Amino acid sequence: MMKRVRIGMIGSGTVGSSVLGLLEARKSLFESQGYKVKVLPVLVRDPSKTRDNVPLGTQFTADDKVLEDADIIFESMGGTGKALELVQSQLQDGKILITANKAMLAERWDVLKPYTMNGQVYCEASVMAGTPVLGPLTGTLRSSNTLELHAILSGTCNYILTRMEDGATYEAALAEAQAKGYAEDPPTLDVAGTDAAHKLCVLARITVDPNFAWADIHTRGLEGLSSQRVLEAVRNGKRVKLVGSIVPKNGQWHATVRPVLLDAEHPLAQSASSRNTMLFHGDASGIVIVQGGGAGGLVTASAMVGDLIDHFAGVTGHQPSPEATRVPQNHTPEVFAEL
Question: Tens of pLDDT along 101-156?
Fold first, then answer.
């Protein structure tokens, strides 16, 4: 017998509208898993606003009581205020949350940690959009103790740096990223490195310490980085990338986001345009590299809908490390020249 599932949607921006389209396109797949999916009226700030990129017949509402009728919540509103208020009440009722909201996960862990620990929260899209890293880290790679982790986590910054290598000014590259829908509005969180830091904080809790503090992520973005400096790096066989790292340092785990110089042959340097890359080094797994799309509405939506498919298959949400990972004493992590 087909099980009916009601989806409560919060937000219908670039990501939310892509989720709506993908939910419609994958109905037959859900049915093959035994589920009949119904999307309730989408919760938005302004229901009267014209929205072109949504399935025909999609309804909208500003009344958050619509979420009371939902079984599963998709959140793509973003931010740490109203979004948290809305999802917290639903999580308290035992509902499942699927979110791409890295800021909420990083900064309001005090609220979300209990629900994440018990598997109610799916958040693959919060780190590298449609590229799966949380699934492998909470699954296959959990048998390995972390030695170090490095990642390019901002598709926006990666796009900007790639265009600057082509000779574009920082301002022109940023404008292009905004036009393509890679940069958030306003783009401050992206270019300041805060967006990447939010994602690195999620990774730190997954891999080394479930209580890793948001305040302990050291962050420096692209501000002040000139096109001349980027082009000089290219002439010297290097590439400039905004890299987030989790490494052992002085007996503790240290997490930082900053622009660095990489050899052109380095795996992280191969991450071009809006793509993201994660390099995980575990004591049993060795080095594992994952690369893929890290920005864009449909790319992000693919991970969120993928989380729903996992839930239907009986896979629990992305749980953090159950305890702090031992800091390796005899491992020297890779060091990059910082700009």
Answer: 999 999 999 999 999 999 999 999 999 999 999 999 999 999 999 999 999 999 88
**Residue 252 placed within a domain:** yes
CA 260/CA 289 separation, integer angstroms:
19
Determine the length of the chain.
339
Cis peptide before 114 (omega within 30 of 0): no
Query: Active-site residues: which are they?
Result: 199
Residues 176 and 146 in one domain: yes
Verify that 80 and 203 share a domain, yes or no: no
- Are 212 and 113 contained in the same domain? no
Indicate the pTM of the whole model: 0.95
Q: What residues contact residue 132 under an 8 Å CB cut-off, 6+ apart?
A: 124, 290, 292, 303, 306
* Total domains in the fold of the chain: 2
∠ at Cα 186 (184, 190), nearest 5°? 55
Tokens coding 127: 């780190």
Structural domain for 224, as ranges: 135-295+323-338
